[in-house]
Amino acid sequence: MKRLLTAWLLASLAMTPAADAADTPLGAVETFFDAMSENDWQRASTVMIGDAVLYGYRIQDGQVWLGRLTVDEYLETWADRDDRLLERIWDVKVLEDDRLATVWTPYDFFLNGEFHHCGTNSFSLIRDESGWRIAGVVYSILTDECEPSPLGPPEFD
Predict the structure, then answer these.
(1) Model pTM score
(2) Are strands 63-70 and 93-97 parallel, antiparallel or unpaired?
(3) Closest Cα partner for 121 from 21, 28, 19, 35?
(4) Number of domains in the chain
(5) What tens digit of pLDDT does each residue of 18-67 get?
(6) 144 C-beta neighbours (distance < 10 Å), count
(7) Which domain CATH number covers 104?
(8) How many whole angstroms separate alpha carbon 151 and alpha carbon 157?
(9) DSSP code for 37
(10) How far is 31 from 35, CA to CA, in rounded Å?
(11) What is the C-alpha separation between 96 and 105, in angstroms, rounded?
C-alpha cells in the first residue's frame, strides 16, 4: 500500500499544475512546512519545482558530510514513513527581485515530538506565471550547537 501511495505521490508531483504555487516566496516556504507537519506530501509538492534539489550538510567526526536529494527522493523518503515532523522557522529574511527570491531562516526540527536538530535553511525560489515555487534548498544540520528557539517550546497536537 505504501508503495502505491509513493507511486501516486510521485506521479502527481510530475503532473502538479503551477496553479498551486504560492503568492509570496515566504508563502511557498510556509506551505511546505505546514504540509510537512501534516504529512501531506502531495501538498508539499505543489510548491516545489519537479526537479528541485535539496542539499544538507553537517560536520561529523570533524568531516563535512554533504547529502543531496532530488525533490522526488525527499518526498518519497517521508511518504513511506509515519513520523510526526515539525520544523519551525523564525527571523526570516526574504530577498526578492522580479521572479527570483531567496528565503533564509534559522530553524529547529522535531521528530516524533523530540528535538532532533537545528540549523539554517536557504530556499531558492522562482515565480512562474501562477506563483512562487521552491527551486532548491540548502540547509545546515546542527545537533550540539543549537541555541534555544525564540519561539519557546513547541506545542504538539
Answers:
(1) 0.83
(2) unpaired
(3) 28
(4) 1
(5) 445 689 999 999 999 999 999 898 999 999 998 999 999 999 899 999 99
(6) 7
(7) 3.10.450.50
(8) 16
(9) H
(10) 6
(11) 15
